[in-house]
Amino acid sequence: DAKTTQPPSMDCAEGRAANLPCNHSTISGNEYVYWYRQIHSQGPQYIIHGLKNNETNEMASLIITEDRKSSTLILPHATLRDTAVYYCIVRYQAGTALIFGKGTTLSVSS
Amino acid sequence: DAGVTQSPTHLIKTRGQQVTLRCSPKSGHDTVSWYQQALGQGPQFIFQYYEEEERQRGNFPDRFSGHQFPNYSSELNVNALLLGDSALYLCASSLEPGQLSPLHFGNGTRLTVT
Fold first, then answer.
1. Taking CB atoms and an 8 Å limit, are A95 and B33 in contact across chains?
2. I need a labelling partner for B43 at 20 to 30 A (CA). Which of A99, B2, B92, B93 fits?
3. Phi/psi of residue A7, each to 5°?
4. Looking at the complex, does the CB of residue A110 fall below 8 Å from at least one CB of chain B?
5. How far apart are CA A92 and CA A98, in angstroms?
6. Res B1: pLDDT
């Protein structure tokens, strides 16, 4: 079973920041948090991952709480093309399989 | 640089038949994983291949089998198709399993079983 809990859906206005929360209260010390998204009719796309420090790349920022029990994916300026299902996944360092939950459907509107 | 490519994109089969799906990994990647995604659900892990061997397997019956070739490409075979096997089948590639490298997914093969 997935080890994460995400809201089923969220809305965001175009140009605003989208903040997607994820709870992973049972995460262990060697597990990483990964975020993927899936745009309709496409395969999942890697966004970002982290262990305990905040991470930022050209797509998004990942904020992980100090106790590592939750995290937030931030899309700083959401566009219509960011409308997708976003999956938060915890993964062993050893590279075990990604276990997907149902994710959060983010709808960006103008 | 080509990403993960899958073929065919769509396929219709009859219950009881057998099907083979194909995947070419992203250049430089040597590990291939297969996922099944039913409508409205997240992808479910089927198995992972590395060095031409199955390394991990999810909760799928033996009707699901695979193969990895020396060039790292892979096939997924499903025997005795059931209506419930209708789904999007996704292939993902990455560097060797022990790495933290992200998985790169193809756009999948849509299988319909009638």
1. no
2. B2
3. -65, 145
4. no
5. 9
6. 58
Q: Which of A87, A91, A100, A106 is nearest to A6 (CA)?
A: A87
What's the pLDDT tens digit per position in A86-98? 999 988 655 678 8
Which chain A residue has its CA at the smallest distance from B90's CA? A43
The pLDDT tens digits of the residues spanning A16-62 come to 999 999 999 988 888 889 999 999 889 999 999 999 989 999 999 99
Rg (CA), chain B: 13
Those residues of chain B whose CB sits closer than 8 Å to some CB in chain A are: 4, 33, 35, 41-45, 48, 56, 58, 90, 92, 94, 96-100, 102-108
Contact A97 B33 (CB under 8 A): yes
Q: Are A70 and B16 in contact (CB under 8 A)?
A: no
Predicted pLDDT at B69: 97
Q: pLDDT tens across B58-77, in order?
A: 999 999 999 999 999 999 99
- Structure token pair of residue A27: 């995460």
